[in-house]
Prior knowledge:
By secondary structure, this protein is an alpha/beta fold. It has helices spanning 6-12, 17-31, 107-124, 139-148, 164-176, 187-191, 234-239, 248-253, 258-262, 273-279, 299-317, and strands spanning 2-5, 35-36, 41-45, 50-59, 64-73, 87-92, 98-103, 131-135, 156-160, 180-183, 196-199, 218-221, 242-245, 270-272, 291-294.
Amino acid sequence: MQLFYRDAIRQAVGLDLEALAAVEAGFAALGRGEVVQPPILSMAIEEANGEVDVKTAHIRGAPRFAIKVSPGFFDNPKLGLPSLNGLMLVFSARTGLVEAVLFDEGYLTAVRTALAGAIAAKYLSRPDSRRVAVLGAGEQAELQVQALRLVREVERVDVWARRHEAAQAYARRLEDQGLEARAHDSVAAACASADIVITTTPSRRPILHAGELPEGVHITAMGSDSPGKRELDESVLHLAGAFVCDTRAQSETNGELQALAARGEPPSSVYELGRVIAEGWQLRNSPRDITVCDLTGTGVQDTAIANFALERLARVGD
Protein backbone atom coordinates (compact mmCIF):
# COMPACT_ATOMS: atom_id res chain seq x y z
CA MET A 1 0.00 0.00 0.00
CA GLN A 2 1.25 3.48 -0.90
CA LEU A 3 0.67 6.71 1.00
CA PHE A 4 0.60 10.04 -0.78
CA TYR A 5 0.17 13.49 0.74
CA ARG A 6 -1.25 16.75 -0.58
CA ASP A 7 2.01 18.35 -1.70
CA ALA A 8 3.02 15.38 -3.85
CA ILE A 9 -0.50 15.01 -5.23
CA ARG A 10 -0.68 18.70 -6.08
CA GLN A 11 2.62 18.54 -7.93
CA ALA A 12 1.38 15.59 -9.99
CA VAL A 13 -2.22 16.61 -10.68
CA GLY A 14 -3.50 19.97 -11.87
CA LEU A 15 -6.08 21.56 -14.11
CA ASP A 16 -4.96 20.37 -17.53
CA LEU A 17 -6.43 18.68 -20.58
CA GLU A 18 -5.39 15.17 -19.49
CA ALA A 19 -7.16 15.55 -16.16
CA LEU A 20 -10.19 17.00 -17.96
CA ALA A 21 -10.29 13.99 -20.29
CA ALA A 22 -10.10 11.57 -17.36
CA VAL A 23 -13.09 13.11 -15.58
CA GLU A 24 -15.02 13.45 -18.84
CA ALA A 25 -14.45 9.75 -19.54
CA GLY A 26 -15.86 8.95 -16.11
CA PHE A 27 -19.02 10.91 -16.87
CA ALA A 28 -19.33 9.21 -20.26
CA ALA A 29 -19.04 5.77 -18.63
CA LEU A 30 -21.80 6.77 -16.22
CA GLY A 31 -23.94 7.82 -19.18
CA ARG A 32 -23.37 4.45 -20.88
CA GLY A 33 -24.45 2.54 -17.78
CA GLU A 34 -20.93 1.26 -17.07
CA VAL A 35 -20.72 2.56 -13.50
CA VAL A 36 -21.89 1.21 -10.15
CA GLN A 37 -22.53 4.27 -8.02
CA PRO A 38 -24.35 3.98 -4.70
CA PRO A 39 -26.08 6.96 -3.07
CA ILE A 40 -24.02 9.39 -1.02
CA LEU A 41 -23.59 8.51 2.65
CA SER A 42 -24.03 11.82 4.44
CA MET A 43 -23.88 12.65 8.14
CA ALA A 44 -24.51 16.01 9.81
CA ILE A 45 -22.61 17.06 12.93
CA GLU A 46 -24.81 19.99 13.77
CA GLU A 47 -23.21 21.05 17.07
CA ALA A 48 -19.96 21.78 15.18
CA ASN A 49 -21.63 23.14 12.03
CA GLY A 50 -20.14 20.18 10.22
CA GLU A 51 -21.04 17.46 7.76
CA VAL A 52 -19.29 14.39 6.37
CA ASP A 53 -19.96 12.86 2.95
CA VAL A 54 -18.76 9.49 1.71
CA LYS A 55 -18.81 8.92 -2.05
CA THR A 56 -17.71 5.99 -4.17
CA ALA A 57 -18.17 4.39 -7.58
CA HIS A 58 -16.78 1.56 -9.67
CA ILE A 59 -16.14 2.19 -13.36
CA ARG A 60 -16.31 -1.08 -15.28
CA GLY A 61 -12.84 -1.89 -16.62
CA ALA A 62 -11.03 0.61 -14.41
CA PRO A 63 -8.12 -0.90 -12.43
CA ARG A 64 -9.17 0.72 -9.14
CA PHE A 65 -12.10 2.25 -7.33
CA ALA A 66 -12.01 5.00 -4.73
CA ILE A 67 -13.93 5.64 -1.54
CA LYS A 68 -13.75 9.29 -0.58
CA VAL A 69 -14.38 10.66 2.90
CA SER A 70 -15.03 14.40 2.76
CA PRO A 71 -15.66 16.38 5.98
CA GLY A 72 -16.80 19.99 5.90
CA PHE A 73 -16.66 21.92 9.19
CA PHE A 74 -17.70 25.45 8.35
CA ASP A 75 -16.72 27.20 11.58
CA ASN A 76 -13.11 26.06 11.19
CA PRO A 77 -11.87 29.35 9.69
CA LYS A 78 -12.61 31.00 13.05
CA LEU A 79 -10.07 28.55 14.51
CA GLY A 80 -7.52 29.17 11.80
CA LEU A 81 -8.31 25.83 10.15
CA PRO A 82 -9.59 24.98 6.66
CA SER A 83 -13.31 24.25 6.42
CA LEU A 84 -12.85 21.36 3.96
CA ASN A 85 -10.68 18.29 4.33
CA GLY A 86 -10.68 14.65 3.35
CA LEU A 87 -8.90 11.68 1.85
CA MET A 88 -9.42 8.94 -0.71
CA LEU A 89 -8.95 5.22 -0.13
CA VAL A 90 -8.09 3.50 -3.39
CA PHE A 91 -8.71 -0.25 -3.83
CA SER A 92 -7.85 -2.74 -6.54
CA ALA A 93 -10.95 -3.47 -8.60
CA ARG A 94 -9.62 -7.01 -9.15
CA THR A 95 -8.70 -8.09 -5.62
CA GLY A 96 -10.26 -5.50 -3.33
CA LEU A 97 -6.91 -4.88 -1.65
CA VAL A 98 -5.99 -1.35 -0.64
CA GLU A 99 -3.50 0.04 -3.15
CA ALA A 100 -3.15 3.60 -1.90
CA VAL A 101 -4.34 6.26 0.49
CA LEU A 102 -4.45 9.76 -0.96
CA PHE A 103 -4.22 12.25 1.92
CA ASP A 104 -5.16 15.08 -0.40
CA GLU A 105 -7.01 17.21 2.21
CA GLY A 106 -9.80 17.79 -0.31
CA TYR A 107 -7.49 18.91 -3.13
CA LEU A 108 -8.60 16.25 -5.63
CA THR A 109 -12.25 17.01 -4.87
CA ALA A 110 -11.61 20.67 -5.69
CA VAL A 111 -9.88 19.70 -8.95
CA ARG A 112 -12.51 17.25 -10.16
CA THR A 113 -15.29 19.73 -9.25
CA ALA A 114 -13.66 22.47 -11.29
CA LEU A 115 -13.13 20.11 -14.21
CA ALA A 116 -16.78 19.06 -14.10
CA GLY A 117 -17.75 22.71 -14.49
CA ALA A 118 -15.51 23.00 -17.54
CA ILE A 119 -17.02 19.83 -19.02
CA ALA A 120 -20.53 21.23 -18.52
CA ALA A 121 -19.53 24.44 -20.31
CA LYS A 122 -17.88 22.47 -23.11
CA TYR A 123 -21.14 20.68 -23.93
CA LEU A 124 -23.72 23.32 -23.01
CA SER A 125 -22.36 26.84 -23.49
CA ARG A 126 -22.07 28.60 -26.83
CA PRO A 127 -18.63 27.92 -28.38
CA ASP A 128 -18.04 31.67 -28.74
CA SER A 129 -18.58 32.31 -25.02
CA ARG A 130 -16.00 34.83 -23.82
CA ARG A 131 -17.52 36.65 -20.86
CA VAL A 132 -18.07 34.91 -17.54
CA ALA A 133 -19.92 35.95 -14.39
CA VAL A 134 -18.85 34.26 -11.16
CA LEU A 135 -21.02 34.42 -8.05
CA GLY A 136 -18.74 33.76 -5.10
CA ALA A 137 -15.08 34.50 -4.46
CA GLY A 138 -13.73 31.40 -2.72
CA GLU A 139 -11.44 28.60 -3.84
CA GLN A 140 -13.93 27.03 -6.21
CA ALA A 141 -14.67 30.38 -7.85
CA GLU A 142 -11.00 30.62 -8.79
CA LEU A 143 -10.66 27.01 -9.89
CA GLN A 144 -13.81 27.09 -12.02
CA VAL A 145 -12.44 29.94 -14.11
CA GLN A 146 -9.03 28.26 -14.42
CA ALA A 147 -10.67 25.03 -15.62
CA LEU A 148 -13.07 26.86 -17.91
CA ARG A 149 -10.11 28.35 -19.77
CA LEU A 150 -9.26 24.81 -20.94
CA VAL A 151 -12.41 24.77 -23.10
CA ARG A 152 -13.38 28.42 -23.70
CA GLU A 153 -11.37 31.54 -24.59
CA VAL A 154 -12.34 33.58 -21.54
CA GLU A 155 -11.65 37.30 -21.90
CA ARG A 156 -13.58 38.96 -19.08
CA VAL A 157 -14.83 37.88 -15.66
CA ASP A 158 -17.47 39.80 -13.71
CA VAL A 159 -17.58 38.91 -10.02
CA TRP A 160 -20.17 39.24 -7.27
CA ALA A 161 -19.78 38.01 -3.70
CA ARG A 162 -21.61 38.74 -0.47
CA ARG A 163 -18.46 40.45 0.81
CA HIS A 164 -17.61 43.06 -1.79
CA GLU A 165 -14.02 43.28 -0.59
CA ALA A 166 -13.61 39.55 -1.33
CA ALA A 167 -15.00 40.09 -4.84
CA GLN A 168 -12.58 42.98 -5.39
CA ALA A 169 -9.61 40.92 -4.22
CA TYR A 170 -10.63 38.07 -6.54
CA ALA A 171 -11.00 40.46 -9.47
CA ARG A 172 -7.47 41.75 -8.86
CA ARG A 173 -6.11 38.19 -8.89
CA LEU A 174 -7.87 37.56 -12.19
CA GLU A 175 -6.30 40.69 -13.65
CA ASP A 176 -2.90 39.35 -12.58
CA GLN A 177 -3.69 36.31 -14.75
CA GLY A 178 -4.19 38.54 -17.79
CA LEU A 179 -7.99 38.69 -17.70
CA GLU A 180 -10.20 41.74 -17.69
CA ALA A 181 -12.12 41.59 -14.41
CA ARG A 182 -14.50 43.70 -12.37
CA ALA A 183 -16.26 43.29 -9.03
CA HIS A 184 -19.93 44.30 -8.84
CA ASP A 185 -22.31 45.28 -6.06
CA SER A 186 -25.20 43.20 -7.38
CA VAL A 187 -25.83 39.85 -9.05
CA ALA A 188 -27.77 41.59 -11.83
CA ALA A 189 -24.83 43.84 -12.71
CA ALA A 190 -22.37 40.92 -12.69
CA CYS A 191 -24.57 38.82 -15.00
CA ALA A 192 -25.77 41.57 -17.36
CA SER A 193 -23.45 40.67 -20.26
CA ALA A 194 -22.47 37.12 -19.33
CA ASP A 195 -22.17 34.23 -21.75
CA ILE A 196 -21.58 31.84 -18.84
CA VAL A 197 -22.64 32.24 -15.20
CA ILE A 198 -20.97 30.10 -12.52
CA THR A 199 -22.46 29.96 -9.01
CA THR A 200 -20.03 28.82 -6.31
CA THR A 201 -21.65 29.69 -2.98
CA PRO A 202 -22.98 27.63 -0.03
CA SER A 203 -26.23 29.63 -0.10
CA ARG A 204 -29.44 28.27 1.35
CA ARG A 205 -31.54 30.93 -0.38
CA PRO A 206 -31.67 31.59 -4.13
CA ILE A 207 -29.20 34.23 -5.28
CA LEU A 208 -29.81 34.05 -9.04
CA HIS A 209 -33.18 34.85 -10.67
CA ALA A 210 -34.41 34.59 -14.25
CA GLY A 211 -34.73 38.36 -14.63
CA GLU A 212 -30.96 38.71 -14.14
CA LEU A 213 -30.05 36.47 -17.10
CA PRO A 214 -29.24 37.58 -20.66
CA GLU A 215 -30.33 35.57 -23.67
CA GLY A 216 -28.19 32.58 -24.62
CA VAL A 217 -26.44 32.26 -21.27
CA HIS A 218 -25.28 28.99 -19.77
CA ILE A 219 -25.39 28.56 -15.99
CA THR A 220 -23.24 26.10 -14.06
CA ALA A 221 -24.45 25.80 -10.46
CA MET A 222 -22.08 23.88 -8.21
CA GLY A 223 -22.68 25.25 -4.72
CA SER A 224 -25.79 23.26 -3.87
CA ASP A 225 -24.50 19.85 -2.81
CA SER A 226 -26.47 18.92 0.31
CA PRO A 227 -30.08 19.14 1.54
CA GLY A 228 -31.20 22.71 2.14
CA LYS A 229 -28.67 24.44 -0.12
CA ARG A 230 -29.99 26.44 -3.09
CA GLU A 231 -28.48 29.00 -5.44
CA LEU A 232 -31.01 29.16 -8.28
CA ASP A 233 -34.49 30.57 -8.02
CA GLU A 234 -37.19 28.34 -9.49
CA SER A 235 -37.71 30.93 -12.22
CA VAL A 236 -34.24 30.02 -13.59
CA LEU A 237 -35.15 26.33 -13.76
CA HIS A 238 -38.40 27.06 -15.60
CA LEU A 239 -36.66 29.44 -18.02
CA ALA A 240 -34.02 26.90 -19.05
CA GLY A 241 -34.49 25.22 -22.40
CA ALA A 242 -32.47 22.31 -20.98
CA PHE A 243 -31.71 21.44 -17.37
CA VAL A 244 -28.72 19.10 -16.98
CA CYS A 245 -27.41 17.54 -13.78
CA ASP A 246 -24.70 15.08 -12.85
CA THR A 247 -27.38 12.72 -11.53
CA ARG A 248 -31.08 13.46 -11.30
CA ALA A 249 -31.46 11.59 -8.01
CA GLN A 250 -28.77 13.73 -6.34
CA SER A 251 -30.15 16.95 -7.80
CA GLU A 252 -33.55 16.13 -6.32
CA THR A 253 -32.14 15.47 -2.84
CA ASN A 254 -28.98 17.61 -2.67
CA GLY A 255 -29.14 20.00 -5.59
CA GLU A 256 -31.23 22.57 -7.39
CA LEU A 257 -34.21 20.28 -8.05
CA GLN A 258 -34.95 19.91 -4.33
CA ALA A 259 -37.83 22.38 -4.14
CA LEU A 260 -39.50 21.25 -7.35
CA ALA A 261 -39.09 17.55 -6.54
CA ALA A 262 -40.70 18.07 -3.14
CA ARG A 263 -43.80 19.40 -4.91
CA GLY A 264 -43.67 16.91 -7.77
CA GLU A 265 -42.97 19.69 -10.31
CA PRO A 266 -39.74 18.86 -12.18
CA PRO A 267 -38.65 21.01 -15.14
CA SER A 268 -40.00 19.86 -18.48
CA SER A 269 -36.57 18.76 -19.74
CA VAL A 270 -34.05 17.09 -17.40
CA TYR A 271 -30.89 15.43 -18.72
CA GLU A 272 -27.89 13.83 -17.04
CA LEU A 273 -24.45 15.11 -18.06
CA GLY A 274 -23.03 11.62 -18.66
CA ARG A 275 -25.79 10.83 -21.16
CA VAL A 276 -25.26 14.15 -22.92
CA ILE A 277 -21.58 13.26 -23.37
CA ALA A 278 -22.07 9.57 -24.23
CA GLU A 279 -24.90 10.19 -26.70
CA GLY A 280 -23.47 13.37 -28.20
CA TRP A 281 -26.69 15.27 -27.61
CA GLN A 282 -26.87 18.87 -28.79
CA LEU A 283 -29.26 20.59 -26.38
CA ARG A 284 -29.05 24.10 -27.83
CA ASN A 285 -31.59 24.68 -30.57
CA SER A 286 -30.81 28.39 -30.80
CA PRO A 287 -28.01 30.76 -29.71
CA ARG A 288 -30.66 32.41 -27.53
CA ASP A 289 -31.43 29.25 -25.55
CA ILE A 290 -30.62 29.20 -21.85
CA THR A 291 -29.04 26.06 -20.38
CA VAL A 292 -28.42 25.06 -16.76
CA CYS A 293 -26.11 22.40 -15.31
CA ASP A 294 -26.43 21.47 -11.64
CA LEU A 295 -23.33 19.76 -10.24
CA THR A 296 -23.72 18.06 -6.86
CA GLY A 297 -20.53 15.95 -7.07
CA THR A 298 -20.46 12.24 -7.84
CA GLY A 299 -18.49 9.20 -6.83
CA VAL A 300 -17.56 8.50 -10.44
CA GLN A 301 -15.64 11.78 -10.52
CA ASP A 302 -13.71 10.68 -7.42
CA THR A 303 -12.81 7.28 -8.84
CA ALA A 304 -11.83 8.88 -12.16
CA ILE A 305 -9.56 11.49 -10.57
CA ALA A 306 -8.08 8.97 -8.10
CA ASN A 307 -7.09 6.61 -10.93
CA PHE A 308 -5.66 9.53 -12.86
CA ALA A 309 -3.74 10.78 -9.81
CA LEU A 310 -2.11 7.40 -9.21
CA GLU A 311 -1.08 7.16 -12.88
CA ARG A 312 0.47 10.64 -12.70
CA LEU A 313 2.19 9.87 -9.39
CA ALA A 314 3.66 6.69 -10.88
CA ARG A 315 5.11 8.74 -13.75
CA VAL A 316 6.68 11.18 -11.31
CA GLY A 317 8.18 8.28 -9.38
CA ASP A 318 9.73 6.63 -12.44
